[in-house]
Amino acid sequence: MSGVMSSLDQFATAKLRDLERRALRRTLVPTDRGAFPRVHREGRDLVSFSCNDYLGLSGHPTVKAAAVAAVERYGAGAGASRLVTGDHPLYAELEGALAAAKGAEAACVFGSGYLANIGVLGALAGPDDLIVIDDLAHSCLNAGAQLSNARVHRFAHNDVAAAEALLARHRPEARHAILVTETVFSMDGDRAPLSGLAALCAAHDAWLLTDDAHGFGLAEHDATPVPLRMGTLSKALGSYGGYLCASQPVVDFIKTRARSFIYSTGLPPASVAAARAALDVIASTPGLSALPLERARLFTEGLGLPRAESPIVPLILGAPETALKVSRDLLDAGFLVTAIRPPTVPPGTARLRLTFSAAHSIADVARLVATLKEIPEVAERLACPASS
Ligand SMILES: *Cc1c(COP(=O)(O)O)cnc(C)c1O
Question: Which of 60, 88, 204, 214 is catalytic?
Fold first, then answer.
């Protein structure tokens, strides 16, 4: 090897240096999350408030046993795309259970939530169509909108009037329109005004797509009729994969046209079986899915923050350096709370994003509250809350 860097390595090195300088470089840290919410990282035992394992099901004995049994019976991998030979029998069971849980006619399981969103939007929309999307919608919803080649307009976060203005202006020239939002926003924990958005869609003949990645089990959401409900198996269900719940014809169409479904290998049997078992655990454990929100409310009460609307609570600190510093202080006190920085969140809103789980004890939450109150940057923020 010569000492001269290739233009490729020069490109990567310069990019990394720039990110480093702006405190925006991200690195992987090996983390052993054996007995959630206890995790082991860098030689330390920590309580994690950064996992999306809302119900603690990734480590549930029934869920793990189902995964093991599926490996024994069907092997480690699906072996092909589902449309070729990868559609092992566990899929139909899971799709039936998901549809039942969501009160939908049918469901389609994808390789991940990300793949579900890019597949569904790409199959349903094209250049003659309109996509109206919340400004804070997840990266993969935006990627799906972009890949579809539809005309995309973003509306101010949770602003029904702004969405209406976009539909009034652009809907007439479009063949079809899709309105895209999340039920619970992943980085802010607030909820979409679903009934208002659904009424808007009805008035303008737009199809409502909701991303329920963080809303699973928050029953209030299930009241509004939504024709396209996507979600993930990777968070509250403790497994891996994504899904769409919709009518039978829509699901049949997606299964024959969504590229991320057709051209990607089916999920491993273990993931499908684990998600299926998790649904059973939820159904047979009354009160389980209410616990994360209860824990989150204990936390917001303890710190005098606005009452939590979901198991996600943001503590906005502003500069990425501040978020990293407070995250390190928490690490020293035995808590894993990852700093979230741009571009995941808008510039100037770097934050700690706390996720609460049924696996957290009341004592875990109380200790976290007490610790945060002692950190100067947090105390300052609590005394003088940011406008968001
Ligand atoms: C995590 C997430 C996804 C992606 O789901 P995966 O199964 O992890 O790929 C999609 N949408 C939102 C809002 C998410 O938070």
Answer: 214
